Amino acid sequence: MRSRPLRPQFDHQEDAMIEAKRWNIVITIDEHDGRTRATARLRTRDGERVGVGLARCNPADHEVPEIGDELAVARALTDLGDQLLGAAAADIGENTHEGDVHV
Predict the structure, then answer these.
(1) SS3 for the chain, per residue?
(2) pTM (2 decimals)?
(3) Sheet holding 47-56, edge to edge
(4) pLDDT in tens for each of the 103 residues of the chain?
(5) In whole angstroms, what is the distance from residue 55 CA to residue 61 CA?
């Protein structure tokens, strides 16, 4: 049996036009006085969003900079993701006239 590649099924010729989009997130990390700060910056045609994440080393712990970087970046990406979810919910509410939408 010969396998066939999966292809999306379309009802109309116009639906076959799929636009590929690429979003790049630029992450910046800086450290100052035992604190790590990360920003996750996303630019789209609609504007820019910036997520921020912070981390600090517990004075009783050994200093391992990579852990602070990982925590700060994860928090910045989470902040950015929360902003995107909020924007999507607001857009859905505006387009469906349903008011507060939870996604």
Answers:
(1) CCCCCCCCCCCCHHHHCCCCCCCCEEEEEEEECCEEEEEEEEEECCEEEEEEEEEECCCCCCCCHHHHHHHHHHHHHHHHHHHHHHHHHHHHHHHHCCCCCCC
(2) 0.75
(3) 25-32, 35-44, 47-56
(4) 455 555 555 555 555 678 888 999 999 999 988 899 999 999 998 899 999 999 998 777 787 889 999 999 999 999 999 999 999 998 898 888 777 777 7
(5) 13
